[in-house]
Amino acid sequence: MAEVYFLDYSKEQNVLQALKDLFTKSSLAETILGQGSVAVKLHMGELGNITYLRPIFVRRVVDLINRAGGKPFVTDATTLYAGGRNTPERYLATAASNGFVEATIGAPVVIADADGDEGVAVAIENPVAGCQLKDIRVATRIYHADSLMVLSHVKGHDQTGFGGAIKNLGMGCVTKKSKRAQHAVNAPVLDESRCDGCGNCVDVCQQHALSMVDEKPVRDVELCTNCSECISNCPKEALCWPEGSKEKLQVCLAHAAWAVLKNFSGRVGFINFVQDVTPHCDCASPAGLPIIQDVGILASLDPIAIDKASLDLIDRAPIVVSPAPASPPDLLGRMHGTDSLVQLRAGERLGLGSLEYRLITI
Predict the structure, then answer these.
(1) Is 349 helix (H, G, I), strand (E, B) or coil?
(2) How far apart are the first and last CA of the chain?
(3) Which of 100, 103, 117, 197 has the highest local Cβ count within 10 Å?
(4) Which of 116, 147, 111 is nearest to 260 (CA)?
(5) Which of 137-146, 149-158, 224-233 has the lowest average pLDDT?
(6) Distance CA 13, CA 314 (A)
(7) Three-class SS string for the chain?
(8) What domains are there in the chain, each with its CATH number?
(9) 268-274 and 109-111 strand pairing
(10) pLDDT in tens, 217-256
(11) What is the CA radius of gyration of the chain?
(12) In this structure, how many other beta carbons lie within 10 angstroms of the beta carbon of residue 39?
């Protein structure tokens, strides 16, 4: 049974001091001790988002890694959708605006996939649950790190129910090509009965993959990156994801996470921050009001167990918005019309970890 260590905010401890105990007791220090370069993977927040992981927490983890003998750098990959993080230059500018610069976090900020497609291909072996992915391109600077520390802000997600460690790995550590390959399972579908021909979807498409034909949008499959910008910006909700695509995307996420972790056997640790749990991802601005009372911080060497423990704690936390957006179990999944444990079950089948865990409060 996997061990998940829990820093409970209700204990009213000094969180930054208690992070040291969490880091030590969960064996994270031993995991990266003497391992050379340590990629500290996190989401640094979209421009305009205000609920991303706070830089002070990252600074504390960076300091702990330094004390353990590692050489940390903070990293993430560029986005598939257009925004403040879809090129290295834009991402670094957004990161700086959000407080992620070497002067504040104590480590260099590195964009892992450089121009968006610098990666190392890892073949998918023994896929499960009907996954069609053949390989995943892991962002170069993450792939070549000596060890990996994954810091995840747990929150809701429109397409996967929630985002935690598995999503941070499977979507956040790969190149644009592999992001697009995963999102191919939820390419937009048009409900013509809802479409009024406004053309807004055409205007927001950065890939010029949509054009109006007979007052209806037509998609060029070759140009489309499956970024879902058109879905998000359709005022009539005429564009949507295909039925069952949210579950298929979660299966892809698990396989992509497997590809990332294949190169880090015994050299990876996970910290999940269960606070500012918003309905939507840190990619969104705004991401919505937090829906539960802040819970605390979890640490583990098992990505499946730490995500499952995070979801269980969210289900038990007091809901702070009214009316309640959904009800447990799987509060976040129900909010977004999916079973958000699909990604965890697929990950368990792939050998990434265990859904069974022991929660140890520090």
Answers:
(1) helix
(2) 18
(3) 100
(4) 147
(5) 224-233
(6) 20
(7) CEEEEEEEHHHCCCHHHHHHHHHHHCCHHHHHCCCCEEEEECCCCCCCCCCCCCHHHHHHHHHHHHHCCCEEEEEECCCCCCCCCCCHHHHHHHHHHCCCCHHHHCCCEEECCCCCCCEEEEECCCCCCCCCCCEEEEEHHHHCCCEEEEEEECEEECCCEEECHHHHHHCCCECHHHHHHHHHHHCCEECCCCCCCCCHHHHHCCCCCEEEECCEEEECCCCCCCCCHHHHCCCCCCEECCCCHHHHHHHHHHHHHHHHHHHHCCCEEEEEEECCCCCCCCCCCCCCCCCECCCEEEEECCHHHHHHHHHHHHHHCCECCCCCCCCCCCHHHHHCCCCCCHHHHHHHHCCCCCCCEEEEEC
(8) 2-182+247-361 (3.40.50), 188-240 (3.30.70.20)
(9) unpaired
(10) 999 998 898 888 899 899 999 999 999 999 999 999 999 9
(11) 20
(12) 26
Place of tokens 């444990």: 341
**Number of residues written out for the chain:** 362
Q: Chain-centre distance of CA 218, in angstroms? A: 30
Judge contact between 104 and 59, C-beta under 8 A: yes
How far apart are alpha carbons 262 and 252 in whole angstroms? 15
Collapsed DSSP state (helix, strand, coil) of residue 260: helix
Which H or E element spans position 169? helix 165-170
CA distance 198 to 175: 33
